[in-house]
């Protein structure tokens, strides 16, 4: 009888092999050359994964190889088509037959509806396609999400910062490329207060929806002290003119400064801490810094462990020196001889030994032991800071 060997079994023998790849070998007997070939194929696949999709939060590379009697079958899915091409080329160089059955995202389940416009004030985006799954991130009303695939009533989407997770159908309006382009070119307003409402009429007789800081809607016409607006799904409503501004004008005039970043940061004081939150309804530590920069015209990476790789290094001596308003401060576990650095928290430098961050809620803390706001825990686990203002490596303008 042929013997079946899987990578799971091989890992028991060679525990240092990566876990990202599954290779199944079917053959008569256990031959050293076959084991060696499996190792080569695994190394090729793993190398491509590391090159094209080192961070699974922003890239999909769920590719497996099935090896059977001199032929390799490529299965799985990826949103990195170039990686798939390189993999097939490298496998062919091994003088082995290749059957590429992998799926490139977006897949056929998406069809022409390649975009999803956020249709609620805030939509919750989860780590898995179920409501009980971890909240991974959020997106704001009017934001464009790229749709990668559909599973039932859930969509795998990619946010403007590159994050890939699942949103349920109730939070978005699907659009074709032409519909999304028409939406993006329509006159819009951006909401500039922390919270508010869209009303059924200019008399505010009923509420259509709530709105939060950074939400965008298509603007139709002014009606007294209100602006008539349109949601992505076509609903109409009225928002107070004093609470919005023209989005195009706002984009053209916004000039990110330390004071500007801190202005929005301080407006969020007291906002509840929410794991996965990136809105005025609730923020986690990196969602807070992300929101402050978004309202200054920048899309920055989603998580603290990603944010530390953008911008310019400041305060390399870790003495809280040379910092400017709006610099991102990172905290966590320093690297040792046996462990890597682990970033677990981020805040924004205010000046005068103080910083603002989301911990329990958005609040001000200090690195000065004499201050009533002294945060001993974070002071002792400070890992360094990054400056985004004037150093846009790893960040981008908002649309």
TrEMBL record:
Domain of life: Bacteria
SUPFAM superfamilies: Cysteine proteinases (SSF54001), Prokaryotic SH3-related domain (SSF82057)
InterPro entries: NLP_P60_dom (IPR000064), Papain-like_cys_pep_sf (IPR038765), Peptidase_C40 (IPR051202), SH3-like_bac-type (IPR003646), SH3_16 (IPR041382)
Residues annotated as domain SH3b: 113-176
Listed GO MF terms: cysteine-type peptidase activity
Pfam families, A to Z: NLPC_P60, SH3_16
Keywords annotated in UniProt: Hydrolase, Protease, Thiol protease
Claim: Hydrolase is one of the keywords in the record: yes
Protein name (record): SH3 domain-containing protein
